[in-house]
Specification:
The protein is an alpha+beta fold and 71 residues long. Helices cover 27% and strands 39% of the residues. Strands 2-3-1-4 form a 4-stranded antiparallel sheet, with helices on one face. The protein is globular, with a radius of gyration of 11 Å.
């Protein structure tokens, strides 16, 4: 299923885009990642495909990696 998330780093207001790309490459259930760009309030706008029943795993992985999805 196609997902849209604004992702922010827990400790840094505007972290390096390459750091997010690296984390998303190995995120569970994630494919076809597109980092749309920087969000005006911080973090990055992203779009990606997420395999069924992996949202919980993705959230846990992102938190462990220092990232959080903001709705």
């Amino acid at each position: 299923m196609e997902q849209y998330h604004r992702l922010i780093h827990i400790d840094e207001p505007q972290p390096d885009r390459a750091a997010l790309e690296k984390v998303m490459e190995s995120a569970p259930g994630v494919s076809n990642v597109v980092i749309v760009g920087s969000h005006p309030k911080g973090g990055y706008e992203t779009r990606f495909r997420l395999a069924s029943d992996t949202l919980g795993s993705l959230i846990a992985y992102m938190e462990e990696s220092g990232w959080r999805s903001v709705l």
